[in-house]
Design goal:
alpha+beta, 8 helices, 225 residues, 7 strands, 3-stranded antiparallel sheet, two-stranded antiparallel sheet, disordered N terminus
């Protein structure tokens, strides 16, 4: 009986795939650069687990927001120097970017950044905003109206919690000062981390939530986490 012919191999395809992987490795290891397909997304620090976020959500005070009387953005001094010469904005861009290089004033001169809200990548840091996860006006209406200026400054420049996110200007401005019951990022893959971060910031600073806000966050934890 004649031998069954073996399945023909595709050496060209295998070689092409290998060369593609080798080229990618060169970009990362030699040039120190990663393409959006290869680079990982970087999240701010301090995002809790789902169970920890649930416990924190359960502990938040539920009440209506105040009417915002007296609010002014200048009451939250922000982009103060964190580690000379880097201010809070520059710190976040260095913290959450890829292969970031800065000049003597800590302004980014090169690097790659991903916007978690909409999945957009850029190599132009000036095109990104630094979003306050819990917006300043939202914080004011949730309890920050009673804080000292020093407390509000700490809140507005907190680089050690999930309060500051590097995102596209368009997504930041689309969000405005709305809470999760009113706005969520267009990129659904970030919804779980988004609400966990929101809860954590409110927990850290003793800010309240409305019943609609809490219900929306709970639904997201249940369905996305």
């Amino acid at each position: 009986m004649p031998a069954t012919p073996s399945r023909p191999r595709a050496p060209y395809r295998s070689l092409t795939g290998l060369l593609t992987l080798l080229a990618a490795a060169v970009l990362v290891s030699v040039l120190g650069w990663a393409t959006p397909a290869l680079a990982h997304h970087v999240l701010p620090p301090g995002i809790p687990s789902a169970s920890a976020a649930q416990a924190q959500l359960n502990g938040l005070t539920v009440r209506a927001k105040n009417n915002g009387s007296g609010y002014d953005r200048s009451l939250f001094p922000h982009w103060v120097v964190i580690s000379s010469p880097c201010d809070a904005r520059e710190h976040v861009l260095r913290r959450d970017g890829h292969t970031v290089q800065v000049d003597s004033s800590c302004r980014p001169t090169s690097g790659r950044w991903s916007s978690e809200y909409d999945g957009v990548w850029t190599d132009n840091a000036s095109s990104f905003d630094i979003d306050h996860m819990v917006p300043l006006h939202e914080a004011w209406r949730s309890g920050a109206n009673t804080w000292s200026t020093a407390q509000r400054q700490n809140f507005a420049n907190d680089v050690n919690s999930p309060q500051l996110w590097a995102v596209t200007a368009s997504s930041n401005r689309s969000k405005g000062d709305r809470d999760p019951s009113q706005w969520m990022p267009p990129r659904t893959a970030i919804h779980c981390d988004y609400v966990k971060a929101w809860v954590n910031v409110k927990h850290r600073y003793g800010l309240s939530v409305t019943s609609a806000e809490k219900s929306s966050i709970q639904s997201t934890i249940n369905t996305r986490c």
